[in-house]
Amino acid sequence: MTYQEWVDKIGFPKAVVLLGYPESTLRMWYGFHRFPRPRQLVVILNKSGGLLDLERWVRDFESKRQTITKAA
Length: 72
What we know:
Elements: H1 3-10, H2 12-19, H3 23-30, H4 38-47, H5 54-71
């Protein structure tokens, strides 16, 4: 499951409470504008119960960043 799928499943309000980060931060991760730091990733992975596919998230993020770079 991707981070986006997980947030879609539980909703932003619940994700904010569960993770303890501002909604604006969660939305930046959701939209591939930023990527969580290692410490934040550990929190996300722990709080999501290990449901997230971190490798897929990293690859999706990099793919999106390359698309943005090519468009500029």
